[in-house]
Design a protein that fits this description.
- By secondary structure, the protein is an alpha+beta fold.
- A hairpin with a 5-residue loop joins strand 17 and strand 18.
- Helix 14 packs across helix 17 and helix 21 packs antiparallel against helix 23.
- It is flat and about 100 Å long.
């Protein structure tokens, strides 16, 4: 018979940020091993539990005893098993390893030859014989932070472990882990529980903990409950919650019995930029800030308590006092920072090291000014405005507010620049130049912000790459991949030449700082980032065909990909792609260059027809490419199918006459050049 198996490890408070992963990993490891041993079918749905003080798993339909296992091992070939009537060392050794004599071995085929075979049946083991080892192994595999010891024991875990519960149906399964003997008693909520919870059955674990222990054991159920209660409270105040999923997860990992409470703070603190207040509420106190219908911060907030009381005023009052001190600090920093203009802080960046091989932040700012000053006008921005924004972009790094909250860099610069009268464009560029900060983040808006953003990211990539710190494998300590993706996403919408940008960035560094070949290396790196970014929306062959041309302007790439997709829908496309591949293979074998086309050397009708088609189509195709009508350019290539087919059917390219051969190669070279103006069509051939 099968019954539900429950395994719970009761601990002291586990690290909240790691809890979701710990719970999932613990459950998966145990289930996979039990399924591998045959105690449970691999298709059974198990339930993982994770709360601040417990990791657990409940698995239905688990056998009490492992099924018998049929064992079959193949040994040496029959033909090589005996010599002079005696078993060879190989056969004798195989028999010993199986724990039997040679006479007990059978013979059979392994699909190639007859071999000796050992067959036996291993009697299944009970759960009690394997669970201790499985639990211990699962704990050692956890993606855990630092391990610790406690008491006088030599066992190690993330936090001290005080209880082990193992039930199969209503029966306790004997097990021993970290010097703890298994039982059926666990603990509920630290304060709200009626006392120790003696579990009756494995099936009733979640319900019994909820009713008697005041614990919502399932992380997912608790997360849903937290979200629902917060949203209900916010709706009652006609507000929205300013929080990301990470905060919801962390708070869920901090409580076992979530109770949502409303509290507030003095309206005078709203004079401080709301980003500062939101950050300190979220990061330091794990509160949920509230925004009104206009997106402005309210002086009310929500908190999730792990305690349910008849009178919650002492909880909210205590939290309000703690928050008041935090907000007072933020208000003080904000007021102190305003005593100095942002521009007065820039010289101080000379004392902040950016990288010992590249120089200080001030030296970096000077490079940003130069690079942004070149990019800005190309985007329609005034050079002086772009340079001013770049000059002030890093000044807020020396403010008290950013010193306390590094996450506010750029944001505080925007506010302080606005208070200094720098103008909205410059202020917004200071904040916007950090965008996109992560995958899916918004892009900087406006030509000045775009210029400074590109300058910032390109300077970082070229500088770090140029001193040899190139990303390898999963190592990218300076986040060059993220910076490159930020550049790629912007260049898809901007009429800028990437190679020119890289050359200008390289020139901004002192001679000898950036290694030779950096521009080419970074350009290839950017192409790889672009390829990865496009992979979710376009076929790999199409992307390879377009990027094979090393396009300097990424804003044309999407149009070229669209054109390739429409070209592939033409009935002539497959034949033209195959012909292009054939032409490329022929030209690869040619040593040296090809001569100019000499029409007088054409002596076959097919080559004359192909030359005429080339002359007819060259002007309209080139005009379409020049006007960015890539679809129109590729569709015109359909007219090449007939003359190209006729050429390869009736003309010997590698003629004995060297002049004729060279002329035919020149014709194919010109044809390939025209056909591949939009994409390398040979890469579309199957």
């Amino acid at each position: 018979m099968t019954q539900t198996l429950l395994i719970e490890l009761f601990t002291e408070e586990l690290p909240p940020k790691a809890l979701p992963k710990l719970g999932a990993a613990f459950a998966k490891s145990l289930f996979d091993e039990l399924a591998k041993l045959g105690f449970v079918d691999a298709g059974v749905e198990y339930h993982a539990f994770a709360s601040p003080r417990r990791l657990a798993i409940s698995i239905p339909q688990v056998l009490a005893v492992q099924p018998d296992q049929r064992i079959e091992r193949k040994g040496p070939a029959v033909a090589a098993g005996f010599k002079d009537g005696q078993p060879t060392p190989a056969l004798a050794g195989f028999a010993r390893s199986c724990g039997v004599t040679v006479d007990a071995l059978e013979q059979g085929s392994d699909g190639k030859q007859d071999v000796f075979i050992f067959r036996s049946v291993k009697t299944g083991e009970p759960l009690s014989a394997v669970l201790s080892g499985l639990i211990d192994a699962a704990l050692k595999k956890l993606p855990a932070p630092k391990m610790m010891r406690w008491g006088d024991r030599d066992g190690q875990f993330i936090r001290p472990v005080h209880g082990l519960t193992v039930l199969h149906g209503a029966d306790v399964v004997p097990a021993k882990v970290l010097h703890l003997e298994s039982g059926r008693t666990t603990q509920g909520h630290r304060f709200l529980s009626k006392g120790p919870v003696e579990l009756k059955t494995a099936e009733g674990y979640e319900r019994q903990l909820f009713e008697e222990g005041k614990v919502v054991a399932s992380f997912a159920a608790r997360r849903s409950l937290v979200g629902h209660r917060l949203e209900t409270a916010a709706k009652r105040l006609n507000a929205t919650i300013a929080a990301d999923d990470a905060l919801f997860d962390e708070v869920t990992a901090l409580v076992e019995w979530p109770v949502v409470l409303e509290a507030g703070f003095e309206a005078e603190f709203l004079k401080v930029p709301q980003e500062c207040l939101i950050l300190t509420m979220q990061q330091n106190q794990k509160y949920f800030p509230l925004l009104d219908t206009n997106g402005k911060l309210m002086n009310r907030f929500l908190l999730v308590s792990n305690l349910e009381t008849a009178d919650s005023s002492f909880i909210t009052g205590g939290n309000e006092r703690v928050l008041r001190a935090r907000l007072s600090d933020a208000k003080f920093f904000f007021e102190q920072d305003q005593k100095r203009r942002l521009e007065s802080r820039v010289p101080g960046l000379a004392t902040v090291v950016y990288h010992n091989k590249i120089g200080s932040q001030l030296e970096r700012v000077n490079r940003l000014v130069k690079i942004a000053g070149e990019i800005g006008p190309a985007l329609g921005a005034q050079k002086a405005v772009a340079e001013r924004a770049a000059y002030l972009a890093k000044a807020d790094l020396l403010t008290d507010m950013v010193g306390e909250f590094p996450e506010l860099q750029g944001i505080m610069g925007m506010y302080y620049a606005g208070l200094d009268g720098e103008g909205e464009t410059v202020a917004n560029a200071i904040e916007g130049h950090y965008h996109p900060r992560f995958a899916g983040d918004t892009l900087p808006q406006g030509p000045v912000a775009q210029a400074v953003s590109l300058a910032d990211k390109l300077e970082s990539i070229v500088g770090i790459w140029g001193i040899g710190l190139i990303p390898t494998g999963d190592k990218d300590p300076f986040a060059l991949r993220r910076a490159a993706l930020g550049v790629v996403r912007q260049l898809l919408d901007l009429p800028l030449d990437l190679r020119s940008l890289l050359v200008a960035t390289d020139a901004a560094f002192p001679a000898g700082v950036v290694a030779e070949g950096t521009v080419d290396g970074v350009y290839g790196f950017m192409l790889d980032r672009l390829k990865n970014y496009l992979a979710a929306d376009f076929p790999a062959a199409d992307i390879d065909a377009v990027l094979a041309l090393n396009p300097p302007r990424f804003d044309e790439v999407l149009a070229r990909l669209k054109a390739v997709a429409e070209f592939k829908a033409l009935p002539e496309s497959a034949a033209l792609a195959a012909a292009n591949k054939r032409i490329r293979n022929i030209l690869k074998k040619v040593e040296g260059g090809v001569p100019a086309i000499n029409a007088s050397l054409f002596n076959e009708a097919a080559e004359k027809s192909l030359f005429d088609a080339l002359q007819t189509l060259q002007t309209p195709v080139e005009a379409a490419v020049k006007s960015h009508d890539f679809t129109g350019a590729l569709k015109q290539l359909a007219a090449f199918k007939a003359p190209v087919d006729a050429f390869f059917e009736g003309v010997m390219v590698m003629a004995d006459d060297l002049a004729v051969r060279g002329n035919r190669l020149a014709l194919l070279s010109a044809l390939a050049d025209l056909m591949n103006r939009v994409a390398e069509l040979s890469l579309l051939a199957e």
